[in-house]
User: Fold this.
Amino acid sequence: MPDARDHLPLKPIDLELLLALAGEERHGYGLVQEIAAHTDGLVTLDPGNLYRVIKRLMESGLIAEAGHRHADDSGERRRYYRMTALGGRVLAAELDRLRALVNARSTRAVARRWIP
Assistant:
């Protein structure tokens, strides 16, 4: 079984994409919408960047295709993606890593110094 720590630390966009897939399978445009909503519009992905990230995460085994489905009554088919078991372990490990970082005494000291 691959070690999740081999994939850490995640790039911020990788973390956002895995978070977007944590609850359900999504198609590309659904990922763009979820990431924008989750980041209050701070992160917006154009299709070229999105599909480069998807390709990289698929090659790493963190996400996989979940098949094609009809998007709506137009008959248009969309490719859906899902998080793999490895992707879930990597996401959990990254969240634990970030939690430890945020809760570290030295981090809190810096925050107290610079946050009004």
Notes: The first strand starts at residue 26 and ends at 27. The two ends are 46 Å apart (CA to CA). The first helix runs from residue 12 to 22.
